Amino acid sequence: MTTAPRPRMTTLQAYASHGSTSYGEISPGRFAEIVKGDTPTAGEKVSVCQGLTEMPTTSINRDVAGELAVEVGVTRAALDARCQQLCGGALGAYAFPAVLPLPPKLTPGS
Questions:
Q1: Contact call for residues 11 and 71 (beta carbons, < 8 A)
Q2: pLDDT tens digits for range 55-74
Q3: Going by C-beta distance under 8 Å and a sequence separation of 6 or more, which residues neighbour residue 45?
Q4: Which of 11, 54, 72, 95 is the least crowded, having the fewest Cβ atoms under 10 Å away?
Q5: Do 17 and 10 meet the contact criterion of CB atoms below 8 Å apart?
Q6: What whole-number distance in Å separates Cα of residue 89 and Cα of residue 86?
Q7: How far apart are CA 49 and CA 93, in angstroms?
Q8: Is the full-model pTM beyond 0.85?
Q9: For the purposes of burial, counting CB atoms within 10 Å of the CB of 5, is it exposed (0-12), middle (13-18) or buried (19 or more)?
Q10: CA 65, CA 1: separation in Å to the nearest integer?
């Protein structure tokens, strides 16, 4: 028996899901409302900022942040500005740390 493939998550759902990782769940709808200008609660702000600053803005052949802007119904410039306003930093600023930790040293027999 073959199962149907699961539908692909929208970019908005991915951002909201990542924003829900550490500080409490935020729905994609609420995430979009805040990105478009709604005033967030303190908990919502942290979740939205986690999503906006920790998700990569691009991937191979994709403008991920641009896709988010289209799905939410704002321009990419407005999305960038809203991220700066809410989070005090750029979209994707923490997606790839500048300094990566050194890999663990392996000892023989481990």
A1: yes
A2: 999 988 899 999 999 999 99
A3: 34, 86
A4: 95
A5: no
A6: 8
A7: 10
A8: no
A9: exposed
A10: 38
